[in-house]
């Protein structure tokens, strides 16, 4: 609905712009026809000079001598007059081409009318941008909750189909592998079809397969439907960073990307809480884990259709070019997207190839991907491990063990207290850079940051606070998980783990986006695929891992691995500019401007 309304508003904006251009031409033409007190020769000379100044370029002439503008559809002007019109429109760039049989000599490349163009997603009202961010966060929340909610009813699910708990854990593992598979194509698709089409179409198919998993007659059908649901559930996680970048400038992202991350991370962490007592009473069976996700997904789909605007600027410019061609009858109006002749499958295969190449050559991507992979391995093995940590050792019931996940989300929420101090530090960096470039203050003019760059390493501040918390929390949980020690000890340790994880996640995404600019989508694509592949595999082996190694050794090993990675954000903070200079893909600026 919002996308359709945007298309109509673009048409109205184009018509208003053309009306204004026609009116100006008509006014100029009328002025030229008024008698002047000068002599006839002087008048002719003056008129010729005025014409030369105002409507030259490709035989520029007035569109019409009629001072009353006519309906736009009635104007079927000559090519030179259309070229004059294109010159008079703000945001249209005339490009000369070599003469050929299939291309016109001139192309009119459509852009925004100016930096304050209200059709530009960056200039939407604050409320519209905030609602769009919250809706994407809600969408990411629900598909994240779907990844973990079945772990809360694992014993009931496995018993219903007569399989072991290890086989039952495939319900979560294959969903995560579906995330990895879908991430290969969802990013490129959002840059071809737009964000909204990908969100709405994928969510609709996601709901269909979630419903299929709810009705599955056997474990094979459930696993197949869960894998397919994972494929179509991944766009909110792979494309949301692009949506936020569409709406907020680099300084504003310091607030709104953490907001998205903190809200969306509640999905996988609180999924087991939703399923706390399902399947254990006669009220709701274990299959209601899928029905709950389906109901929430349907509600969010309705909200997205009604209120989510399209935010991908190149697609909006493509719509604007289409409106200009339709109204003027001139096929030379094009957008940058219209100029791209790459087929869909070629673009997807090219994106996949870039993901491999950028990973091979970039130590930043390799280490950050490894870091994120380790964190997701720990997080998703907890869905199996909490039974051993809390139920077996401390005797908590299945329902209470699921509720313990609230403590981790409390830790995630604590990262909110870092957002505003880090925003102030970041604002100081951007203000200095903006004043060096154009002498303006971003606090007064949000467009002052256009073309301004700071060191991407400032995005690592979140991780520098959170990284040490991860191994500390794992050692704390592993070495105090004894019946003789209060159950609150591992619970508080899980809170610290949640805080550290979200801080590293926020920094990882923001640092990669700022460091790799146009290649950020490829870098983030590999990060997504690698961590969900590893998490999906470890979810399946988590049960035998905890059974054979025991809680203490399992958490100690995971703590040691995460401790080895703690120096990563500090190393990049110090040596990041040098590493980026060596890179063939990364932004290499060392100065703040």
From TrEMBL:
SUPFAM superfamilies assigned: MFS general substrate transporter
Major location (coarse): membrane
GO cellular component: plasma membrane
Annotated Pfam families: MFS_1
Keywords: Membrane, Transmembrane, Transmembrane helix
Bias (Low complexity) ranges: 36-54
Membrane-spanning segments: 130-154, 166-185, 197-217, 223-245, 257-278, 290-317, 364-383, 403-423, 460-479, 491-512, 524-546, 552-575
Gene3D superfamilies registered for this protein in UniProt: MFS general substrate transporter like domains
Region span, Disordered: 24-79
Topology relative to the membrane: Multi-pass membrane protein
Keyword Nucleotide-binding: no
Compartments reported by the entry: Membrane
Signal peptide positions (record): none
GO molecular function, one term: transmembrane transporter activity
Major facilitator superfamily (MFS) profile domain boundaries: 132-577
Name of this chain's protein: Major facilitator superfamily (MFS) profile domain-containing protein
């Amino acid at each position: 609905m919002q996308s359709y309304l945007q298309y109509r508003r673009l048409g109205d904006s184009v018509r208003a712009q053309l009306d204004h251009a026609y009116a100006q031409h008509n006014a100029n033409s009328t002025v030229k026809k008024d008698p002047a007190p000068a002599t006839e020769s002087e008048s002719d000379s003056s008129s010729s000079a005025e014409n030369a100044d105002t409507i030259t370029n490709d035989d520029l002439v007035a569109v019409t001598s009629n001072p009353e503008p006519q309906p736009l559809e009635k104007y079927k002007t000559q090519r030179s007059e259309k070229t004059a019109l294109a010159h008079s429109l703000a945001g249209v760039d005339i490009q000369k081409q070599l003469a050929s049989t299939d291309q016109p000599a001139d192309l009119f490349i459509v852009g925004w009318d100016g930096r304050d163009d209200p059709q530009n997603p960056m200039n939407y009202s604050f409320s519209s941008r905030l609602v769009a961010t919250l809706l994407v966060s809600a969408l990411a929340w629900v598909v994240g909750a779907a990844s973990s909610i079945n772990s809360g009813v694992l014993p009931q699910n496995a018993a219903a189909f007569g399989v072991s708990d290890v086989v039952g854990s495939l319900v979560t593992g294959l969903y995560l592998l579906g995330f990895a598979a879908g991430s290969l194509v969802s990013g490129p698709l959002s840059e071809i079809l737009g964000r909204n089409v990908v969100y709405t179409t994928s969510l609709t198919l996601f709901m269909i397969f979630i419903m299929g998993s709810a009705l599955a007659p056997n474990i094979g059908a459930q696993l197949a439907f869960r894998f397919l649901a994972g494929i179509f559930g991944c766009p909110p996680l792979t494309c949301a960073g692009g949506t936020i970048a569409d709406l907020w400038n680099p300084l504003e992202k310091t607030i709104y990307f953490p907001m998205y991350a903190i809200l969306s991370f509640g999905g996988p962490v609180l999924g087991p809480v939703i399923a706390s007592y399902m399947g254990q009473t006669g009220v709701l069976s274990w299959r209601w884990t899928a029905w709950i996700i389906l109901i929430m997904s349907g509600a969010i789909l309705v909200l997205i259709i009604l209120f989510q605007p399209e935010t991908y600027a190149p697609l909006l410019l493509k719509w604007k070019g289409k409106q200009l061609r339709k109204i003027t009858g001139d096929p030379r109006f094009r957008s940058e997207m219209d100029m791209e002749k790459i087929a869909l499958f070629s673009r997807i295969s090219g994106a996949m190839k870039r993901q491999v190449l950028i990973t091979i050559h970039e130590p930043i991507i390799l280490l950050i991907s490894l870091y994120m992979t380790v964190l997701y391995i720990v997080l998703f093995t907890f869905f199996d491990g909490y039974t051993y940590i809390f139920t077996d050792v401390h005797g908590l019931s299945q329902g209470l063990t699921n509720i313990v996940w609230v403590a981790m989300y409390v830790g995630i929420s604590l990262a909110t207290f870092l957002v505003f101090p880090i925003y102030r530090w970041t604002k100081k960096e951007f203000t200095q850079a903006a004043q060096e470039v154009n002498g303006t203050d971003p606090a007064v003019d949000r467009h002052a940051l256009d073309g301004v760059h700071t060191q991407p390493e400032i995005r690592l501040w979140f991780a520098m606070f959170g990284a040490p918390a991860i191994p500390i929390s794992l050692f704390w949980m592993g070495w105090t998980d004894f019946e003789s020690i209060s159950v609150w000890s591992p619970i508080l340790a899980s809170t610290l783990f949640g805080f550290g994880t979200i801080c590293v996640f926020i920094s990882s995404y923001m640092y990669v986006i700022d460091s790799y600019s146009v290649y950020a989508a490829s870098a983030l694509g590999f990060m997504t695929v690698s961590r969900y592949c590893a998490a999906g595999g470890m979810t399946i082996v988590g049960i035998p891992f905890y059974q054979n190694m025991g809680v203490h050794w399992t958490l100690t090993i995971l703590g040691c691995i995460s401790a080895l990675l703690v120096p990563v954000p500090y190393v990049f903070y110090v040596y990041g500019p040098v590493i980026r200079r060596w890179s063939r893909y990364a932004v290499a600026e060392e100065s703040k401007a």
